[in-house]
């Protein structure tokens, strides 16, 4: 009989991509912060950048190479508006894409927003053993993604599998 796994708090970064918000008006980033702290994880860093491919890549790349950062939650820039460029900025940095995340997110979102879910390009991947989730900018979508998918996948006790063992150990 194998020993029961224990909860391992992870170091999580939040990146908000927005041309209109600042840290005081960033309700989605704040919601993600509240949710990850309530789950027992640690907020490692939080930033806001404008919707610009190179600013997104710069902020994310710094966390990908930082040994302490284990997970990055990105909110905003995943739709089809002219300046939505999070997916284009982030996906070239992935070593592996978590294809099932976007599929599952749209499936669970369908229950809440119907066919409008097809306009979400939510995605996820691993880069240098850092798990990265790209979420829509709405607070509701961030809550849905955390509560119905991400929270369990960041919990070492979740069976039959989770991502904790795939992440680099925080030093």
Automatic annotation (TrEMBL):
Pfam family membership, one: MoCF_biosynth
Entry-linked SUPFAM superfamilies: Molybdenum cofactor biosynthesis proteins
PROSITE patterns in UniProt: MOCF_BIOSYNTHESIS_1
Highest taxon of the lineage: Bacteria
Pathway: Cofactor biosynthesis; molybdopterin biosynthesis
Sequence ranges assigned to domain MoaB/Mog in this UniProt record: 13-157
Record key words, sorted: Molybdenum cofactor biosynthesis
Family: Belongs to the MoaB/Mog family.
Protein's job: May be involved in the biosynthesis of molybdopterin.
Protein name per the record: Molybdenum cofactor biosynthesis protein B
Species, as recorded: Cellvibrio fontiphilus
């Amino acid at each position: 009989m194998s020993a029961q796994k224990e909860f391992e708090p992870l170091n999580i970064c939040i990146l908000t991509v927005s041309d209109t918000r600042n840290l005081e008006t960033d309700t989605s980033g704040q919601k993600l912060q509240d949710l990850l702290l309530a789950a027992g994880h640690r907020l490692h860093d939080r930033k806001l950048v404008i919707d610009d491919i190179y600013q997104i890549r710069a902020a994310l790349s710094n966390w990908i190479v930082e040994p302490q950062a284990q997970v990055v939650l990105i909110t905003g820039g995943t739709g089809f508006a002219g300046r939505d460029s999070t997916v284009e900025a982030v996906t070239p940095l992935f070593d592996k894409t978590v294809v099932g995340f976007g599929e599952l997110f749209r499936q669970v979102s369908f229950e809440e927003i119907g066919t409008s879910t097809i306009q979400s390009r939510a995605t996820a991947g691993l880069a240098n053993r850092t798990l990265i989730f790209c979420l829509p900018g709405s607070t509701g979508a961030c809550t849905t993604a955390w509560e119905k998918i991400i929270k369990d996948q960041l919990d070492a006790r979740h069976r039959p599998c989770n991502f904790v063992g795939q992440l680099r150990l925080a030093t």
